[in-house]
Amino acid sequence: MLLDRLKEIVGPGGWADDEETLQPHLSEWRDSYSGRTPLMVSPSSTTQVSEIVKACAAAGTAIVPQGGNTGLCGGAVPDSSNTQVLLSLAKMNRIRSVSRNDFTMEVEAGCILATIQAAAEEVDRFLPLSLAAEGSCQIGGNLSTNAGGINVLRYGTARDLVLGLEVVLADGDIWDGMRSLRKDTSGYDMKQLFIGAEGTLGVITAATLRLFPKPRNRQTAFLAVGSPSDAIDVLARMREELSDQLQAFELIPDRAIRFVCQHIPNSRRPIEKAYPWYVLLEASGGSGSDDLQDSLMSLHEDGLTQDVIIAKNEAEAMALWRLRHAISEAQKLEGASLKHDVSVPVNAIDRFIAAAEDAVSAAIPDVRVVAFGHVGDGNVHFNISQPVGWRSADFVAERDRIARIVYDAVASFGGSISAEHGIGQLKKDILCDYRSSIELGLMRTLKKALDPNGILNPGKVV
Ligand SMILES: Cc1cc2nc3c(=O)[nH]c(=O)nc-3n(C[C@H](O)[C@H](O)[C@H](O)COP(=O)(O)OP(=O)(O)OC[C@H]3O[C@@H](n4cnc5c(N)ncnc54)[C@H](O)[C@@H]3O)c2cc1C
Questions:
Q1: For 293-305, how does the pLDDT look when each residue is reduced to its tens digit (9 = 90+)?
Q2: CA separation for the pair 352, 369 (Å, rounded)
Q3: Closest CA to 420 of 143, 207, 208
Q4: Could you tell me which residues come within 8 angstroms of residue 112 by beta carbon, excluding any fewer than 6 positions away?
Q5: I need a labelling partner for 402 at 20 to 30 A (CA). Which of 166, 251, 312, 408 fits?
Q6: Nearest CA to ligand 1 atom 21
Q7: Is 364 in the pocket of ligand 1 (CB under 6 A)?
């Protein structure tokens, strides 16, 4: 029996099949997807993962890899057939090594992101991957979704932070690609195939990550601007003047600040007067606050900003970031919302937001658009709150119609229907309408080559 064999591989304490333990692993963070499993296995070594995959491959049983289960597209939960084995990486949480001089570290896939950040900090190094779920998400999940977060502008996405990977393939073989090379042109770059593949091509068991010098003189500022177009001008000017000191650049509409101040205890407006849009930015390096202050002053004189505050200390900086991170929570408390994690070229952000807002407002008058996000990377979370007075269920029933309108607008500006959250189950069908048949064909060819029997996370991505 397969299930007995899997229990034998992981030993006592390495599996669960009771409802209470399984429950948090069977539904997604937003409760949009849930499923069932006959068994969750939690291996503690790469060899155990390999044996599990071999046993499942022999039985033709599907495996769903799961990290911190903070993904937002239904990628990490099994379907409702009660046949798919859930493979939790949570026990593979060792930091294998940290090389201070090489600016690298080797970590197992189940390490929590915040733990890795802290381990880097201990040796005066910096892992730039940072997102609101960092206390629960795992590096294996971050790599499998090619997570973005707040520091992409300067350091790139998860994909850019990886030098090597260890992966268990669909037949159970272990690919040891744990290199720490900055340069390597010896054939195809295999690791990039598994990054962003959402567990459909292999199970990531470990990674070699790039570390960076710890940013010094970190400065956080909050600016009021008249429009997204002004924000894009500010971004271009600041990049010109500060070069790569600019680390994060977030656009926030006044409606988001209103929701946060209304629903999240101890929140208050950083700038008392309300302006239509704000930018939250972070810069580091250089000679300290003078560079940023000079740059902000000249922007203000040129009329590109309407008001500016610079955080005077760490506590003030954290309060500003708390506002930004509280937007999703506040929007949840405001009623139902339809969310679209999309990207467009940076210089099209203002036109995209205007076009998409016009189009959804024409479909449902009085919808409340909350378009915010990591606009330094062209990433907009185009979220829409239900009109006042609507029943939540009626609004949620509009999900597919509204998504189509938003994604059509995204496509018209040459954008992507998924910027950083992935495809999972949520966007699997609609992906076919927004990638060319050649691209879809290449994806299917890869899937067939690496997982010919379709046992790795079936029903997700392709
Ligand atoms: C409050 C909040 C804020 C967020 N903010 C951001 C943000 O700013 N930027 C961003 O990019 N995302 C964000 N996310 C989304 C989410 O945190 C990321 O997608 C994260 O990278 C997922 O990691 P995880 O460990 O929770 O993965 P899971 O949710 O467990 O899994 C995600 C996918 O990866 C697969 N997977 C997991 N581990 C492995 C593995 N070891 N090998 C192979 N496949 C695997 C799963 O099968 C699934 O398809 C946010 C989520 C929340 C709840």
A1: 889 999 999 999 9
A2: 13
A3: 143
A4: 68, 93, 134, 135, 136, 137, 138
A5: 251
A6: 142
A7: no
